Amino acid sequence: MTEEAPRRPDDVVSPITDSSLPNKVPAADARAAGRFGHEKPTAENSIVLLIDHQIGLLASTRDFSSAAEIKSNVVGLARVAKALQLPVLISSSNAQWQNGDTLPEIKEIFDTEPIYRRTGIINAYEDPSFRRAFDDIVDRTGRTHVIIAGVTIGTCCAFPTLSLLNDGYKVFPVIDACGAWNQYEAQAATLRMANAGAEPVTTFALACELQADWKGPSANAMLEPFFQNLSEYGWITQNYWNNAGQKSVPDPFGSAG
């Protein structure tokens, strides 16, 4: 007589009424104990800065395999910010000259937002008009977590990141929505920001962190950036829904659906 294989235990399915749990230990207490203090960006505590995503500057980047890749990440980040209704500040540098105008897709997504057009000051946070706008958002909302991306990463992103860290903000540079003239610039800037206390992130990992729970009310709106700008996941999702309960094309083999 052969022994029966042990029965696999039942799966444990989370109730759909569950919501995300906070960490057990507050970030300040974790830091006091010598550990990393985790203060994650959320849809409620974050501001997004889109710095110098200008056609001329984007054309000069050389650290991506294609222009389509960096553009898709930048537009994806913009769509994430729009879907979550995050406060956004957009800035350009010397757009009247070689740097060119802001990416048209950004202007279309944020058609009611002004562009703070700097006329020489390289660090956007050091520009008085931009600083006033930033301080106004902080004063009105109490938000202290800053999500930032810019072209190039070594200047347009790194310089304001270091300044913001100095002034006490939590900063999350979105490194794949930036661009660099070469890999050395990208690597040096990322190290410099991380060593100073910033937390480098990527566009769609950040999107998941901000969404936190796909049962949340922003889930449907948040699918759009994934569909439009992360094809690797968008195709998987669309293929599933195309085939859920039916065949997207007739099945000549007559296999069960």
What features would you describe in this structure?
The chain is of the alpha/beta class and about 260 residues long. The protein is built from ten helices and five strands. It has helices at about 25-30, 55-60, 65-85, 105-110, 130-140, 155-165, 185-195, 205-210, 220-230, 230-245; strands at about 45-50, 90-95, 115-120, 145-150, 170-175. A five-stranded parallel beta sheet has the order 3-2-1-4-5, with helices on both faces. α9 crosses α10 (about 230-245). The radius of gyration is 22 Å and the shape is globular. The mean pLDDT is about 95.
Spatial gap, N to C terminus: 39 Å
Q: What percent of residues adopt helix (DSSP H or I)?
A: 40-55%
Radius of gyration over C-alpha positions, nearest whole angstrom: 22 Å
Principal-axis shape: globular
Strand order of the largest sheet: 3-2-1-4-5
Strand content: 5-15%
Residue windows where pLDDT falls under 50 for at least 5 positions: none
Please tally the β strands and state the result.
Answer: 5
Tell me the structural class: alpha/beta
Number of helices: 10
User: Mean pLDDT, as a whole number?
Assistant: 93
Following the backbone from N to C, one meets helices and strands in this order, namely HEHHEHEHEHEHHHH
* Major sheet size, sense and barrel closure: 5 strands, parallel
